[in-house]
Amino acid sequence: MSLGSLLNVSKLGIFASQGALQTISHNISNANTTGYTRQTVELESMRGTQADYGGNGVRIADVRRQIDELVDRRLQLGTGELGRLETRDKYTKLIEDVFNDMDGNGLSQGLEGFFDAADTLADNPGNAVARYQLIAKAESVAQDFNKMSEALSESALPLDKEISVVLDDINTRLKAIQEINNTIVRTEASSPALDLKDQRNKMLLELGQIIDIRTIPMENGEVQVMSSRGQELLADATYSAKFGRLTNVKTDTGFSAIGIGGREIGQDKIKGGKLGGLLELRDEVVHGDTGVLSKLESLADELRWQFNRANTVSVGNSMVSDMTGLMYLGSDLDTALSGVVTDNKAATYQGAPVDLSRVTSGRLVFATGTESALTPSAAVDITTTMTLRQVQQAIDALDGVQAEITSDNKLKISAENAGSKLGVVMDESGILAALGVGALISGKGAQDMAVSAELLSNPDLVGQGRLIVKASDAQGLPTAVVHDDANSQGALLMGNLRSTKFMLFGNSASLTGHYATMVGELGSLINQDTESLTAQQAAQTFLSNSRESLSGVSLEEELTDLIRFQRAFQASSKMVSVADDLMQTLIQMV
Hints:
By secondary structure, this protein is α+β, with helices and mostly antiparallel strands. The protein is built from 13 helices and 21 strands. The protein has helices at residues 3-29, 69-98, 107-123, 128-188, 194-210, 273-286, 292-312, 388-396, 431-435, 453-457, 489-495, 511-551, 555-589, and strands at 39-45, 58-65, 213-217, 223-227, 233-235, 243-250, 256-260, 263-264, 322-324, 362-370, 373-376, 380-382, 401-405, 411-415, 421-427, 441-442, 450-451, 468-472, 478-482, 502-504, 507-509. It folds into three domains: 3-66 and 566-589, no CATH class; 67-287 and 501-551; 318-497, no CATH class. The radius of gyration is 40 Å and the shape is rod-shaped. Helix 2 runs parallel beside helix 5. The relative contact order is 0.14. Strands 10, 11, 12 and 15 form a four-stranded antiparallel beta sheet that branches. Strands 3-4-5 form a three-stranded antiparallel beta sheet.
């Protein structure tokens, strides 16, 4: 080896050691930088020629990020599930507060209070205080439904608004990933973009916690960001998707759909991350066929129907001369009852009474006259093929009874003769309960449930008793009835609803039983989410620790390498000094 070659080899050794020391210094300075990946230097020996017996020294072949791609990919995939579960955990606990009966003022206690009041009235039908108490308890139950519906609706509205905020955040992050992708591609053409890749990896992890994504690394250094099922390109070096709300396209639960560039993207493609969690909460936990708000509405519908069926066939302490329905008839007055659309979920609801679909074919009989001398009317055979107008006309055709549709679109039934009183003997069809004639509860759902204003102002009208049938004909129709203000059959009807079972949500149970089941299912869902979140957090912690053990900076290891390469640098410098001494010796010999 010539002295020139010796000097060159020593110089390359100095450069290689200097580059290694610079990388080590970079690692040490970033030991506390979040998302930083340890960089390592790969040295490569340089092959010598025939004249260079010992080779041509060393060079830096590459500087790499020390990573395990499998661990990084699993960590990235897990962030989407973690974000989804954290979002569900946060909001389901807020929903749970709506059903919290621990303070003794919840719906369950309200229902029990109403049934207790009905039992008290049945025991003493002449007690005016008991009638006031029944109305007060009914109003309390209605207000509980109002508050719960309002709370759940308000929890859904912020959820939908939060979805819009999240979409804007996703758009900003995707644009930033596109820009850093583009910078990495340009930088990689001349030198490794190691720190930029660390920044991008951090950005991808943060995005993955918001929306479930998949990433595909490309040879030029860019990363393609895809939707969770790989069906939508979200970002690369030249493109970034833009999410938005499609005001002209609605989801099954009535909210504006999500789109990319004006094109709808199905919610089945968004399964993880904060966005996926928000969509699940909005469309499954709160709304949807099995959502708590939908179940609350179904419970309210059942309660309103059962309470009204009991009260419409009952009479108060004093009989009345007329009864006006609580429900608006809608515009389908000439459509068969079985064909009338009653969509109580529509915000601009203008249809017929929501309980009209429960009406069946059956007989309807009134009694008119003085309270001491009542005469049963002929029976009206109500069928589901009749229209609302035909129902009104059929009732109006009865002797002693008058029926009309009021100017504000309600059914009013009156005693035809001056001074006469009116009462219901039987209603097998349920038409009076559907139209709210003599009913206890008004409204189309939980959000507007209310006690009849007439009963609130005059509790004596509460249906505490039934008209007593003294005689019937061969067809079972009453031929003689009397009014006894000591009769408590009406109050007993309402009190018996405590234990009567109804089919809801695929199960048969009492009203309080259905409510308890609904609350229990919500609690079970929350516990399941909490357990899943704990398990996912443990899994992410394990993966993070695994990544840190490989890709994190260990100061002890860096200091060891620092000493090693420092000594190598010193040795190469010594070789330069030796070569210089040899050169001086040769010059002196000449």
